[in-house]
Amino acid sequence: MTQMTSTTEIINLNASSVRNRVLVLMAQVALTPVALEVVDLPTRSGTINFLGSALSISLSADSLLLVLMPVLTCAGVDWVLRDHPDVRGGEIPYLFPFWIAPGFAALTLAWLLTRIPTWSLWVTVLLVGLITIATLVFAEYVALSPYARGYAVARLMLTGVSYAIAFGLFTLIYSARERSVISATLSALVAFGLALDLMAPHIIGLGTAATFSLVVGLMVGEATWALNYWNLSNWSAGVLLLAVLYVMTGLAQQYVQDRLTRGVLIEFGVVAAIATFIAWQLANVH
Predict the structure, then answer these.
(1) How far apart are CA 86 and CA 169, in angstroms?
(2) pTM of the predicted structure, to 2 decimals
C-alpha cells in the first residue's frame, strides 16, 4: 500500500511535465502531415525482385508520411515515458514495447490521411487521431506502474484502443489487395507488436511476452494468407483477423496468469463464433 501511495503521489507531481511533453509531441505529429501537404515533393518509382518476382516501389509524399509519423510518435513516446519515476529509478529496463500502440495509431492515422480527398474530413480525422494518440500516450505512462492509481483503467483503455487500431490496420492492409507475402507479413507484424504491448512484458517478462506474441503474429499472418484466397469484403476480413488476434492474445494471457479453464475456452469460442457471424453478415453487404 505504501509503495502504491508513493508512486501515485510522484505521478501526480509529474502530471504537468507529462502533459507539456505530450502537447509538444502532438504539435510535431500534427505539423508533419500539414507540411507534407504544402510541400510539393516529386514521386520516384523503382522495381526490385522479391522472392523471384518483380515488386514495384513508389516513393512520394504519402509514403514519406507513412514513415515519418510513426517514427516521430515512437521517439516522442520514449521521451515522455522517460519522465516516469519507475523508469528514472531503473525499475523498467526497456521501453520499446510501449511505443508500439501509439506508433501503430500514428501509422493508421497517416494511412487514412493519404486516402481522404476532402479537406474538412481530412482535418477532422487528423484531430481525432491526435486525441487518440495523446490518450494512448497518457495511458501508457500510467500503465508503466501496476501500483499507480488508475492502472486498471489505463490498461483497459490501452486494450480497447489497441484492438481498434488492429481492426483498422487489418482492414487497410487487406483492402490494399497486395500479394500474400506482403499483406500476410504486414498483418503478422501488426499482430506481433500489439500482442507484445497487450501482454504487459514489464510484468510477465520480455522473453515470455515475445514468445507468445510471436505465436499470435504467425497465426494472424497465416489467417491473412488464407483469407486472400477468398473474395471477402474488407470489413469481413478485418473482423476475422481481429477475432484471431483477440482470441489468441486472450488465451495467452489467461495461460500466463494460470486461469485457462474450460469456462475461459468456451468464452473465447463464443467470441470467435460471434465474429464469424458478423463477418458473414458484412460479406453479404459487400
Answers:
(1) 32
(2) 0.82
